[in-house]
Design goal:
The chain is built from 13 helices and 26 strands. It is α+β, with helices and mostly antiparallel strands. The strands form 7 sheets. Strands 12, 13, 14, 15, 22, 23, 24 and 25 form an 8-stranded antiparallel sheet that branches. The N terminus is likely disordered.
Length: 486
Amino acid sequence: MNVRHLLICICLTLSCEDDEPPSRFDVALSIVSEFGNSIFGLTNSDKFQLNVIDKNHPNTIWKGDVIWSSSDEEVLKVSSSGQVTPVDYGSAIVTMTALDQMAELSIDIVPFSGTHHTKVLSILWDFMKKWEIPGASLGIVKDERLLIKTALGYAIAEDGIPVSTDSQFRIASVSKSITAVGIFKLIEQGKLSLDDQVFGIDGILSQYDILIEPDYELITIRHLLHHSAGWDSTLGGDPMFRTLEIANFLNVNNPVTPNQIIQFMTEFYSLDFPVGSKFSYSNVGYLILGRIIETISGMLYEDFVRSEILLPVEATNTVLAKNLFEDRYQNEVKYYHNGSLTTLPSVYGTGQLLPVPYGGILLEAMDAHGGWVSTADDLLRFLTAVDGFHERTEILTTSSLITMHTASPHFSQYGMGWEQIGGNWFHTGSLPGSSSLIYRGRDGVSYAVLFNSWPILEQTKYNPEMRSMMNGLVSSIDQWPTQDLF
């Protein structure tokens, strides 16, 4: 006879021989764990104790003879008294045998570095296990002090290389918030205004020929920031993921450049709706903002952002992404893609099929809308410089912040480069193999969380659940650390 127990979110199996005398069933033994089903790190000095209870008397530890065993003593050992000792990262099953009954408990030994906060780590790890995410990095700020800084899981899972708090991740569309701040830096310097014309003879980017749609001349910087310039990727597809087709249209070599993508737009791509008439999220709009930054500043987009935004706040580990795995940065994680297509034709036009995150998409052309690589620490250095709380140095004026967070007239939950609800500012980011979220709470609690996977097939469920998980994680902190880790 098999009886399945659920205790502390762990599925335990109880089994007895069918021919045992009825008195055996007066006792129903199960394992209880004082630490859940996960142990974080190998050097923690905590004692990890397992006990046995009789389910008929659940508040009392059973004192009878017990035999304990581990399915893999290279991962963990368990003593005759039920005390677990982590040995290496991985998973093992602890088995308890007593009175011819058996119960099992699966235990994870998880790579971890940084702040040890059991509730935070447990909530984060449960989320990662559910969505099969190998690694994560997390930072939480309260009153502009970095109080929790932790990394969990694997940077390169198959090699057993753990994530560290210095690990770099692609941040995808969180890049849009950085680009928006760059535009407002130029506005503060008196070099731009929100209603400046972008295309046409009198536009900032007058070098592009407008061959297909005269209304391109109506597009302003405000429209680009508010995602209301006229492109709807749900109708014509996102040009940022059609780079091989663009090269064919223009008869140019692969990989195409950001300037060639914009040339394709103005020469071949009709607007999908009247300029300024509705909100439609647009990657190419922020790509164009990057070229505006270059034209007005006289600097490369990357150089301007680093010199005017990142370096002043000591965000020194934020750089532009590379296409290929072999070109990744020394501290950069590996990205794990779980979509229906695992390979795509190379963005280099060779015809070779490459992994989607590594040459199947053209990261190096996504700079201003989705191309940055960063750390949780760096993102919070950036975020606390534009959060309006003024405990740390601000890089934008209060007036600029108010304008930047003025909602789109067509969508109240998006300002200029930032999502916003109820006075809280945030932005999510997702690309094949990576997902991210930065959040500035009006209560003074802000965070950045980075993952090296994105469940693209379930993105409509995953993205809201990521935000919900983080809200619950922050709410679970009943006692904050005091040391500022900035």
